[in-house]
Amino acid sequence: xxxxxxxxxxxxxxxxxxxxxxxxxxxxxxxxxxxxxxxxxxxxxxxxxxxxxxxxxxxxxxxxxxxxxxxxxxxxxxxxxxxxxxxxxxxxxxxxxxxxxxxxxxxxxxxxxxxxxxxxxxxxxxxxxxxxxxxxxxxxxxxxxxxxxxxxxxxxxxxxxxxxxxxxxxxxxxxxxxxxxxxxxxxxxxxxxxxxxxxxxxxxxxxxxxxxxxxxxxxxxxxxxxxxxxxxxxxxxxxxxxxxxxxxxxxxxxxxxxxxxxxxxxxxxxxxxxxxxxxxxxxxxxxxxxxxxxxxxxxxxxxxxxxxxxxxxxxxxxxxxxxxxxxxxxxxxxxxxxxxxxxxxxxxxxxxxxxxxxxxxxxxxxxxxxxxxxxxxxxxxxxxxxxxxxxxxxxxxxxxxxxxxxxxxxxxxxxxxxxxxxxxxxxxxxxxxxxxxxxxxxxxxxxxxxxxxxxxxxxxxxxxxxxxxxxxxxxxxxxxxxxxxxxxxxxxxxxxxxxxxxxxxxxxxxx
Length: 511
Known about the structure:
The structure is a single chain. By secondary structure, the protein is mostly beta strands. It has 3 domains: 1-34 and 87-200, no CATH class; 220-398, no CATH class; 402-511, no CATH class. Helix content is 9%, strand content 47%. It has helices spanning 9-37, 71-76, 204-212; strands at residues 2-3, 91-94, 116-134, 139-156, 160-165, 169-170, 173-180, 186-188, 190-191, 195-203, 221-231, 237-253, 258-270, 289-300, 303-314, 323-334, 338-348, 361-371, 379-391, 427-436, 443-453, 468-478, 483-494, 500-510. The strands form 2 sheets. The protein has an 18-stranded antiparallel beta barrel. A two-stranded parallel ribbon has the order 1-9.
């Protein structure tokens, strides 16, 4: 059994701010709601006024007395859709989510132009999987569980404090019981109360409107704290670190045919991780790294561009392990039959000392393709390809750069499900598959994939020893609005190494 309680200043500061904001907004909101319940004319802002109209502008609704009422016909008007009994959050306070109106008026602790609508909720999911995994070096049969808890405090329409916790795992190890393998008939309970994320996000324009009492003429979204960032679907950045970011939104240019452009600057000074920099025990270092960068999203040329620059800086024993990263991507649909994304990530500038092997110096080209079939929303054949030269790396992440290339390159973040080499280092290859979503109520994916090495076998610094081939299948279906069943199987043929294989069944409860 491994348990720990690791309080830190970030957690207690975040909790204190959340409690204080919750109490302040809740009290004022409750007073405003009580006043509204007492009756009185509706209120409106001074800029609004009633619209002039004539009584003849309105007429009675049509009469259907001669037509019998049909509930089925009323449902058919909306495509046969019926009300969904959606799962509720684990805990809710003040205004619930996904509720119909009318709503009570907001309070004004932040100003009349930035009203408070407090809502506190705890939601997430609980995943439990039974799996048999053969990663070549070891065979393990186990049942493992993982609890994901999101804690959300909404303050206004644009400001909130959000936290994320995983109480049933520690340092990447999940609570589990092994029934096959070296630790047969042995259970391990791993838990901690560490914060995975805890951040504030809001809009400076809205906050200024509340302070000044005048509508701001700009939007400036910001986030600060232990904040998650994701760029290019997680291929370039998918990490949570202590820092923050700000975005300039909705820029357009007739001259350059830009219909919309967003630019985000970001930075972090703690909890930054990258596969390129590890401790002596081969775990990711998250204490001695900083990151900063800029990312842009541009809608132009009948598609959209994604571009970014970032840098990793090391401290202490990792001061010479930092590197820089440039990325560029373009996504577009061609001829009504092909959806294509082209991505490039160039890693450079690392200068390790002590004769150590470079870990971040290379470039990778990725092409993501899917065919538009007669069932474009449910039947999706795809072919994803890449060529990686030397040792390209994501800017900030804890997994490989090929994790979105196909299901044969994904693990499950629970049981250690086997996968093909996902580094893209001195390799080329691809994944060919087909996804079918039936009536948007279940998913079936079948895929074949390969990794082909560039250079000699056992070349120093490359993760893949030799060529690899993989076959994977996935099926998942919701058995109720709150419960999902998912099954996976894969087999990997590895030249010059033992084959890998895995099969798993997962039950997921959403709340």
